[in-house]
Automatic annotation (TrEMBL):
Keywords: Coiled coil, Membrane, Transmembrane, Transmembrane helix. It comes from Novipirellula caenicola. Residues 116-179 form a coiled coil. This is Multidrug resistance protein MdtA. It holds the Pfam family BSH_RND. Belongs to the membrane fusion protein (MFP) (TC 8.A.1) family.
Length: 404
């Protein structure tokens, strides 16, 4: 009996599993009626636009530099002496003109040396006069056969020696005069004092630095120019080449409206080893406004320079804010009001514009200037009137501006 019960259980369990599976399949395989879904409404993008037209565009290259003097020298003593006096124009910040007396040394020793040299010169000339007279007499005796040749040679040698001594003492006078002049330090050019390194009573020797000065007739600025910008400039390379106009502005106080006119007059012969930039030298006339009315431009002043380059003909200037991913813009078909993207190849770009050839875009074509995060090709576009404010599309916050 137990055997029959166990056998029945073994048969019933698999049969039950098969029946349950069949029932489940029958229930799940029944097709349910589904209502047809409505197609999603096509999203309309909204954007501000601007019309693009060909025009000429003047290239302006912005760079930076620091104003420096074209001639900055250290005044040094050429003779040994004690500083006797310094003049008021030889103080830090003071202006001076070429030839002005800056300081004086005690010159008594050099005046004495000059007096001695002059007296020695007088003595040498008197000796020469006697030697010439002796030589004349000896020549007369030779003609009368009253003197030997050796005696005549000795007298002539004395004459040559006397002539040489006159020349030596004359040179000594010149040297003594130069040394006496060097006890007074004169301004070598129109300039300004950077520093005074000595004082009255100080003993100086040749090579002692007395102070530093620089010229004020004009100043210079070294301006780095990137290699990609050089093709839009015609920089002076040889003497006689036309200079290039530059405008300089204060790099420290950007709110200042001061502008200084300068001209690039030459370029350096090699590229910078680190940046591979070429340095151009701009010249600013009368930086301290001594003979003009422009604001004072001080040595060491950092400046922002705008260099005026070539004029690009028949090009289109695209607002930089409308360029996406460096080289893509969105244009709008005026008839269909649909969107299309265009990859551009810029000729030039600056902080405000990206310049492309005129044949890249048709005249009058509309450019989407609003940031479009979701912009499928051919999407319908609604043009936002100019009176409306900025619009954020596709859920993007207004501050998320695409990086040009």
């Amino acid at each position: 009996m137990k055997f029959l019960i166990h056998a029945l259980i073994r048969v019933c369990i698999p049969v039950g599993i098969l029946i349950a599976g069949g029932y489940g399949f029958a229930v799940l395989s029944v097709n349910t009626d589904q209502e047809p879904s409505e197609p999603a409404e096509k999203q309309v993008l909204r954007s501000h636009v601007c019309s693009l037209d060909t025009r000429d565009f003047a290239v302006k290259i912005e760079t930076h530099g620091v104003v420096g003097p074209h001639n900055h020298v250290a005044l040094s003593a050429e003779v040994t002496g004690t500083i006797q006096s310094t003049h008021s124009i030889f103080e830090a910040g003071a202006f001076f003109s070429a030839g002005d007396l800056l300081l004086e040394m005690d010159d008594r020793d050099y005046q004495t040396a000059l007096d001695i040299a002059r007296e020695q010169h007088k003595l040498a000339k008197a000796t020469l006069k006697l030697a010439q007279a002796a030589n004349d007499r000896m020549q007369q005796l030779l003609r009368q056969d009253s003197a030997s040749t050796s005696e005549a040679d000795a007298i002539f040698a004395s004459l040559v020696q006397a002539e040489s001594q006159v020349e030596v003492t004359a040179s000594a006078i010149e040297q003594a005069e130069r040394d006496l002049q060097r006890t007074k330090i004169y301004a070598p050019f129109d300039g300004r004092v950077v520093s005074k390194e000595i004082g009255v009573g100080e003993l100086v020797s040749p090579g002692t630095v007395l102070g530093e000065v620089f010229a004020v007739d004009y100043a210079e600025v070294r301006l780095p120019i990137a290699g990609r910008e050089l093709r839009h400039l015609k920089l002076p390379e040889m003497e006689g080449d036309a200079p290039v106009d530059v405008e300089l502005r204060n790099a420290i106080d950007t709110s200042s409206d001061s502008v200084w006119r300068a001209k690039i007059v030459r370029t350096e012969g090699t590229l910078d080893a680190d940046s591979l930039e070429l340095f151009a030298i701009a010249k600013i006339e009368d930086p301290f406004s001594l003979n003009s009315e422009h604001p004072v431009l001080r040595i060491g002043q950092p400046v922002v320079a705008t260099i005026f380059g070539e004029t690009l003909k028949d090009v289109i200037a695209i607002p930089r804010g409308a360029v996406r991913r460096l080289d893509k813009v969105y244009l709008i078909d005026q008839q269909k009001l649909t969107l299309r993207s265009l990859t551009i190849d810029p000729l030039w770009s600056d902080a405000e514009h990206v310049i492309v050839p005129g044949q890249t875009i048709r005249n009058g074509e509309l450019l989407a200037t609003t940031m479009l995060v979701y912009a499928p090709e051919g999407s319908p576009v609604e043009i936002i009137p100019e009176d409306d404010g900025p619009v954020s599309l596709a859920g993007s916050p207004p501050e998320m501006e695409a990086t040009p």
